[in-house]
Amino acid sequence: MFRSYYQYIPEGKEYPVLCRRLSRPDGFATAILNYMWSFHKEEILLDWNKIAEQYGYVHIGTCRISPDHKFLAYTLDISGNESFALQVKDLESGHIIPGLEVEGVVSLAWAGDSSFLLYTVCDETQRPYKVFSMELGSTLVDNLLFTEKDMSCCVDITSTKDGKFITINSNSRTSSEEGLCC
């Protein structure tokens, strides 16, 4: 089964909508089955407009779908001060997972098995400097993985193209370092 993810701005609205469609591989018989079983039905994962109606303002910073397609992690600014809070949505139930909200989050990356979410947080000057890992379904405190002590450097995280590793990147204007994690 294939999943197509996309976003668009609905007519007459100000903000985008993040969606997905499920489909099976191409072929005439498959096309008929897809039509009959509504595999091409659009599923709205995140509607910025509804959030803006609730809070008056919204800016979504980063969105990441888990590799198993069951969770959506995203950062949300509802104040306009560019301070983003992490939220994780269970895509099967459609609900935000309570207790996972973290303030000051900049970048996100999922572990390949979708059990851990890594994220960076900012200091008081809005410099991303710490990397944490969060285990979904656990009540344990998030695990601090890395702290950048050099005030001239910022930290971000990314997944490798094959999704097997997450890199922790420390960058300044004149240098950069990269390390593998998970």
TrEMBL record:
Classification via PANTHER family: PROLYL ENDOPEPTIDASE, PROTEASE FAMILY S9A OLIGOPEPTIDASE
Cellular component GO terms held in the UniProt record: chloroplast
Pfam families membership: Peptidase_S9_N (PF02897)
Molecular function, one GO term: serine-type endopeptidase activity
Domain called Peptidase S9A N-terminal: residue spans: 4-178
InterPro entries listed in its UniProt record: Pept_S9A_N, Serine_Peptidase_S9A
UniProt-recorded name of the protein: Peptidase S9A N-terminal domain-containing protein
